[in-house]
Amino acid sequence: MANPSNFQITPRAAIMESNELNFRSLYLFHTSLGANQTQSTVIDPNATTGLGQTAVNNWAICDSPSPGATVVARAQGLHIYAGNWQNTFSITFEVERYVRI
Questions:
Q1: Pair type for strands 85-93 and 27-29
Q2: Is residue 75 included in any domain, yes or no?
Q3: Alpha carbon distance 36, 73 (integer Å)
Q4: Number of domains in the chain
């Protein structure tokens, strides 16, 4: 199981205050097909350009890359295709010991 000290939070000052999150030994999983989907398209892409596809996600963040890994958090948000995928999500921890802010 991952050690909760395997991540660090670095305050950063820019136009607005933000934090840089650096996680080690945590793995993000997403499933777009099948019965256990963790993302879903809500806006189809433009038929000519492919741009604009938008999907919502509830991706699992686990403590190992193995199939039996424990879900410790969720990446909940959306992603939009605009030539490259742009992702925005909140990390919602489900395991209390990982919440150290």
A1: unpaired
A2: yes
A3: 17
A4: 1
Neighbours of 71 (CB within 10 A): 13
Q: Does 14 map to a domain?
A: no
Three-state SS letters, 41-100: EEECCCCCCCCCCEEEEEEEEECCCCCCCCEEEEEEEEEEECCCEEEEEEEEECCHHHCC
Please check whether residue 8 is in contact with residue 25, taking contact to mean a CB–CB distance below 8 angstroms: no
Domain that holds residue 52: 26-98
Q: What is the pLDDT of residue 91?
A: 87
Q: Which pLDDT belongs to residue 83?
A: 94
Please give the model's pTM, rounded to 2 decimal places: 0.69
- Asked whether residue 78 is domain-assigned, the answer is yes
